[in-house]
Amino acid sequence: MPASPSDHEPANLIRLVGVEKSLGTQKVLRGVDLNIREGEKMVIIGRSGGGKSVLLKHILGLMRPDAGQVWFRDKDLAQLDEEQMVPLRKETGMLFQNGALFDSLTVGENVAFPLRERGNVDEKEIQSEVARALKIVDLPNQELKWPSQLSGGMRKRVALARAAIAKPALMLYDEPTSGLDPVVADSINKLMVRLGDELNMTSVIVTHDMVSAREVGDRIAMLYEGKIYCVDKPGVILESQDPVVKRFVNGISDASDAIF
Ligand SMILES: Nc1ncnc2c1ncn2[C@@H]1O[C@H](COP(=O)(O)OP(=O)(O)O)[C@@H](O)[C@H]1O
Ligand SMILES: [Mg+2]
To answer: For ligand 1, is residue 48 a contact (CB within 6 Å)?
Structure first.
């Protein structure tokens, strides 16, 4: 039998096709095209306020495009109503930018939350899943601690355990290392790689942290002026001689745009 391309290339889990979105008076997304392959770690970079979080919300189905499609496997999210969205949401974990824990719940209850929310009532199973998730993020036996007793990095790891506990097919991370010191950020980078590999997840990581992008990404996509400007392996993007990419990668801040 002749080999078809699908014998060699992983299928796309997510496909954004011509996604446009205006918010307020601003056209934030202006025709985003991006394929995210099954099992890959896709990093999305771009300037602050450029629409990265908005893009993630489209993948989550929390925002709907004005034009274009967001495909999750063979389903166009824009065509689904809230009820039809439920099974897809169960396949997606999200680490929000300021991914707060519930301060009135223990670490264990925080991590257990998604399981309880989806109606899992087998207490023994919940406890063993919580223990497993906390172990993956290097916080074994911390179930009874309160969020207020943890450092910023530890809280981030608990949030990671909570997002991953139901072993979603897709994990979305919004600026997972922002506000963390480099050592803690490095541990979060390693955890994202570990989670992706051990749980066989597809990961989409929005970041402006180039160290993180290089360490975690199988590919990097750059969002620029509402479109995906380029997508390639980290080495290619980070060494790019394209002026737009180079300027961003080398960390020239938005403030210094004025002098160009
Ligand atoms: N719910 C909203 N209502 C109005 N404007 C929004 C909303 N969400 C985001 N925006 C605007 O869209 C632009 C892109 O935001 P965002 O995706 O958060 O940027 P990034 O994550 O790349 O920093 C910003 O100008 C922001 O103010
Ligand atoms: Mg953002």
So the answer is: yes
**CA dist., res. 230 & res. 61, Å (int):** 24
pLDDT at 1: 56
Cα(152)–Cα(225) distance, integer angstroms: 33
State how far the Cα of 158 lies from the Cα of 147, in Å rounded to an integer: 9
Strands of 67-72's sheet in order across: 26-37, 12-23, 67-72, 75-76
Q: From ligand 1's centre to the CA of 25, what distance in Å?
A: 11
pLDDT tens digits, one per residue of 11-32: 999 999 999 999 999 999 999 9
How are the residues of the chain apportioned to helix, strand and coil, as percentages rounded to the nearest 5? 40, 25, 35
Nearest residue (by CA) to ligand 1, atom 4, is 23
pLDDT, tens digit, for every residue of 197-220?
998 999 999 998 899 999 999 999
Domains of the chain in sequence order: 10-249 (3.40.50.300)
